[in-house]
Amino acid sequence: MSTNTEKYLKDNRHLLDVEHPDDDAIWSKIQERDIEAQQESQKKKVIFLVSRTFRRIAASVIILLALSYIAIDLTVGISIRNENYLSQLSTEYGKNRAEHFNARRYCHNRYR
């Protein structure tokens, strides 16, 4: 059966090869696809650059916030450490203060 088909194709090849592809149409399609691919890659580059810029800005803001927190923490911590309490100025004031807090603690625990 395949021999009959092969024989028919060999004998009638000139009748079957009537259509040829249009080279201009093929190249125009290829060029259209190439142009579309270039446009998409340019869009992706723009999006990538925008997201890259956004990430840099976000990282800068985070760094600035962290540094400002550290600076505030250091300045407030130093000012708290430099405060003079009455107990540091006089031992008598320190004893009175300790008695006062002990009395408050006792009353608080008693009426709880």
How many DSSP E strands? 0
Profile the largest sheet. Answer: none
Helix content: over 70%
The separation of the N and C termini measures 108 Å
Secondary-structure element order, N to C: HHHHH
**Morphology call:** rod-shaped
Strand content: under 5%
Spans of 5+ residues with little confidence (pLDDT < 50)? none
SS element count, helices: 5
Query: What radius of gyration results from the CA coordinates?
Result: 44 Å
Class from helix and strand fractions: mainly alpha
Q: Whole-number average pLDDT? A: 77
Key traits:
112 residues; 5 helices; 87% helix; 0% strand; rod-shaped
In short:
With 112 residues, this protein is an all-alpha fold. It is built from five helices and no strands. Among the domains are: 36 residues; 28 residues, no CATH class.
